[in-house]
Amino acid sequence: MLDHQPLRGKTALTTGGAARLGAMSTRFLHAAGANVIIHYRSSEDRARALRDELLRQRADSAFLLRGDLLDIDWLPELVQGCLDTTGRLDVLLNNASNFFPTPVDEATQAQWDSLFGVNAKAPFFLARAAAPALRENAGCIINMVDIHAERPHKNHPIYSMAKAANAMMVKALARELAPQIRVNGVAPGAILWPEGDDQAKHQALPRIPLERAGRPENIARTVLFLATAEYITGQIIAVDGGRSVQQ
Predict the structure, then answer these.
(1) 159 is catalytic
(2) d(CA 220, CA 100)
């Protein structure tokens, strides 16, 4: 029998959860019954708006925590904030990401540190900080990866490399944290483009077998599936309309 609220009574933390894929995933986790902790750094207006939207649906079910994920020493405080708020942690969605071009001839160490910091370093050390709480509840970690972890994105070598590290993190932590904690990933394809980047969208669509862009809901449904799939770990699901099977 299907449970329409399989996460009832559980707590989910979404990093970068105020906008875009993070916000939609948070909505789906909340609709499945979870209390949600929305982490944000600078998107305060969006974070408050999302929290208020969810609170109108269910009282005392959505909360905000603000901080810089690149401050590694702060990450245990983020986890403790979740525990102080709801008393538990069951789902960690490592969604926060940096994305910008770094052509080889122009790339800087600061860009490297930013892209690897948010896409690889922060989610690893947050997973480490969250592991004791997740272990208590047989919880799970879900990383937002990218199809470009396997197929490098032109002019984005550092981003692609950082996401490749993120993908290996899924597999490595699935072994390290088993059997109590499951670790999986979602690899979005053509879902959301940066504003004004119509050229990238025009170039991408003909290479997608389903011949259309995806929607944030497609990602959020997959996140929810992995949050409730009790016998899946170490897997990365590409949600890309078939793009990753094309040449």
Answers:
(1) yes
(2) 23
